[in-house]
Every structure is written in structure tokens, then in C-alpha cells.
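Why run this: before we spend reagent on co-expression, it is cheaper to look at a predicted model of the complex and decide which construct boundaries make sense. The entries below are exactly what would go into the expression plan.
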Amino acid sequence: METVEEKKLIVTKIKEGTVIDRIPPGKALKVLHVLGINDNYPYTVALAMRVKSKKMQLKDIVKIKGKMLTSEESQKLSLIAPNAVVNIINDYKVEKKIVLEIPEQVSEIIKCLNPNCVTNNREPVFPSFSVISKEPLILQCKYCDRLLEGQNLSEQL
Amino acid sequence: MKFTKFIFSTLNLSREYLESIFSLASKIEQNPENYLNKCNGKILAILFFEPSTRTMLSFESAMLRLGGSILGFASGKTSSSAKGETIADTLRMINGYADIAVIRHYLEGVGEIAKKYSSIPVISGGTGTQAHPTQAMLDLYTIKKAFGKIDGLKIALMGDLKYGRTIPSLLYGLAKYDDVTLYLISPKELKIRSHVRQRLNGFNLKFYEIDDISQIIDELDVLYVTRIQKERFPDQLDYERLKSSYKISPETLNNVKDSFILLHPLPRVDEITPEVDSLPCAKYFEQAKNGVFVRMALILNLLGVE
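The model came back. C-alpha cells follow.
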């Protein structure tokens, strides 16, 4: 059973910022890492891990005051926390709700690990991948065809 | 006939397109005199950042036999890439000097750069370990010429299937045909890469990865041998042990079918002994010659001439 303190932490409203709900259990710290939230972040951050959930059995939740996601951050989050729900809060109200989905294409946020790929060699092109499998997550470089998966991929997120 | 502008992979070439190139190559082979002046006034730029013998010379021969001219370089060391010029800039510059280009580069993904930055047609002469589409096309042409078809054949690829750039291109080309049975024979260190296997799984193609040719050689129509490179083995003892198992001698071919053919993209080192050269099944020098006709057909197609 959740304690009163836990419930309070989860339900306390924030005035302005982002609430990310339905994060796969255990991934909340990774989410904060992707969002660049560290010990220097000046506003309130609440994090709950392995909270009971009707839909997921267990889930993580992150609330970040004063934070709006960039498209690059959303793209990365969709890869580590697919199906998580991003709530954009303004004046204590949910202004927008976005369910994160793994995209068909991933551009610029991840590097190809092939040192001979043109994207790693001063050419005027940016890394770009096709998502060829969502479970497990496997990306394929659009330039050199190499696959990016497992630890090689998660280390870049 | 459908025209295309860039040839960097066989993956995106349809069977119909391949067949139209083979048909034109065959016409050229039969009546080369009809094509002597087809490219008068046209210039082919040869941009070779890596060494080559057959690919470069056969492209040069192809353009000269069509009445065109050639310019270019045979090493990155003698071009401005040695000063740090990008491929994109080299291509943009060459657009003002030539009508069509062929590029060989050690980097992979050059095709996407060409599509973005070149206004003239560009053909790959080999990119890294990724692709060598014109080699694969001349291989397919040679097979087609020998059997009159590619459908239904039993074909084995043997040797370095991991680093040989011809291999993925040939596999994707063969995948466009029906009922081809493929045997991929290599030491475990040199099996096809995972992304190539993943692509092959997307085709309706039967392929078997094995490590010994003796169990299937008698039923093969085509054996395609590639060179196993010494430097790919961290332990030289492994190389010495393996190289003899992947060597073709007349004894290996004792019981092959009458129609069987032996191919190799060349250069060979010791994976096919010289005694094999005189056997009727040894088609690798004819294969190299076929490269000129196929490349002539491609130049004509990409220039929109035929």
C-alpha cells in the first residue's frame, strides 16, 4: 500500500511545467537524465518510482516545475519511455496531453557508431535512422545500413 | 526502358530494371559497333578515393567504347580530399566538369550525399564494405548469360561474406529472382553482417549459412568465391587453418554438374588454384570482361541515351 506521503507526492499539483506519467517502471532516472535535470536544476522536481498503476501494474512518474520539452527531448523520451504520457501544465491545469509513440524515423539525436559512415566524417549530413523494430528497439542507419540496438543504443539515450 | 540517376545499391533496383540493363548489355556485346558514337561529347568523371583495377579500367573502357571521354583521379591522395575537401563539395565541383560520374570511396553512405548534392548521374564503384552494385550486376549478367535465367538456380557464395562489399549487393540482386536457393559458406568470423541478414529475411529467399562446401557442391549451379583476407583474423593460426578449407582446386570440383560455373569478383590470391583456370567451368575472366558491357549499358541508361 502507498503511504499518505507517497500519495501526496504523486498528486501534488504544480503550477507550470511538465508531468510525465506512465513511464515504464525503473526508467524515471533515465528520463531525468535525458531531460538534463541534474542537481543544479533550480525548480522543484518530484520523482516516483514503481507506483501502483491500474493500466501498467507499476509505473514511474516525473513532475518537473518550469520545464517544457523540446522536440529533441520528446523524440529521445519516446525511445526510452514509449507510451508514457506527457502532460503540459499551465496554471495548475493540463493544457496538453501527448502520448509518446516510437516514431518511424529518428533524426539527429543519435549518432551512427560506424566510424566509416558519412555522418561521422565532416560531410554536410545529419545522422538519420529508420525504426525497423519497436520491441526490441532496433534502428537502421539510413546512410550506411548498420543496425543500432541494445546497449549501443541505450548508452546514447 | 526506365531511366535512373543514381546507382548506389541493388536493394532499390527492381528485377525489371536489372533485366533491362542485362538486355541492353547483351545487345552491346553482340553488336558493339552500333554503340561506338553514342556518347560523343560526353565526359565520365572517375572519382576513385580507393585503389581499383577492374572497376576503374572497365568503366574507362566502357566510356571510351561509347565514344565518350574520361577524366578523374585514381587515389584520394592526389585529389583535394587530401586537403580535407568533403565528398559533397567534390561532387558539386565535378558537376561542372562532367556529364556522369563514378565514385569509389572507403566511406559508407556516399549515395545519400550524391542524391543530395549531385545534379549529374552518379554510379557507385564500391563504397566501404557496404555495396558494390555494378559488380553485382555484372555477376548477375554472367549467370544469366550462362543459364539463360537466374530463377530456380542453386547458388553458393563462399569466403569473406562479412567484409566483401560485393556480397550484400549480389545477395540483394539475387533476392529479386524467384526460387533461388542460396548457400552462404564462410568461417563463423566472416558470416554476413546482421543488417544484411535482416534485409534478406525481408525477401522471399531461401538461404542457408553453412561452413563446409563439400556437402553441397555437387548440387550447385553457381559457386561464387571471394577472397579471405589475412588481416581479418586476429590470430594468424586461425587464418592458416581456415584458408585451406576455403580453397578451390580441380579436386574440389570433381563431381560438379556439367552446367556448373565458378565465379570470382577478382583479385584472387590463393582461394582458386591456377590449375582451375583451364576448366570449362572457370568463368571469372569472362565475368570481368562482362563488366564492360554492363557498365556501358548503365552509362547509356543514366545519361538517358538508350
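Residues 104 and 125 of chain B are 5 Å apart (CA to CA). Strands of chain B lie at 6-7, 43-48, 69-73, 100-105, 122-127, 154-158, 181-185, 206-210, 222-225, 261-263. Bring this page to Monday's planning discussion.
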